[in-house]
Amino acid sequence: MTINDINNQNLLKAAGFVGGEWVQADDGGTLTVDNPATGGIIARVPAMGEAEARRAIMAAESAWPSWRAKTVKERAAVLMAWHQLLLENEEDLARLMTLEQGKPLVESRGEVRYGASFAQWFAEEARRDGGDIVPAPRTNTQIRVTREAAGVAAMITPWNFPIAMLTRKAAPALAAGCTAVIKPASQTPLCAIAVTALAQQAGVPAGVINLVLGSGTVIGSELCANPAVRVLSFTGSTEVGRILAAQCAPTIKKLALELGGNAPFIVFDDADVPRAVQQAMLSKFRNAGQTCVCANRIYVQNGVYDEFMALFKERIMALKVGNGMDDGVTIGPLIDGAAANKAAQHVDDCVQKGAKVLCGGNALGGNFYAPTLLSDVCDDVLPCCEETFAPVAPVFRFTDENEVIKRANDTIYGLSAYLCTRDLGRAMRVSEALEAGIIGVNEGIISSEEAPFGGIKQSGMGREGGTYGMEEYTEIKYTLLGF
Question: What positions does the domain Aldehyde dehydrogenase occupy (predicted)?
Answer without folding.
Answer: 22-478
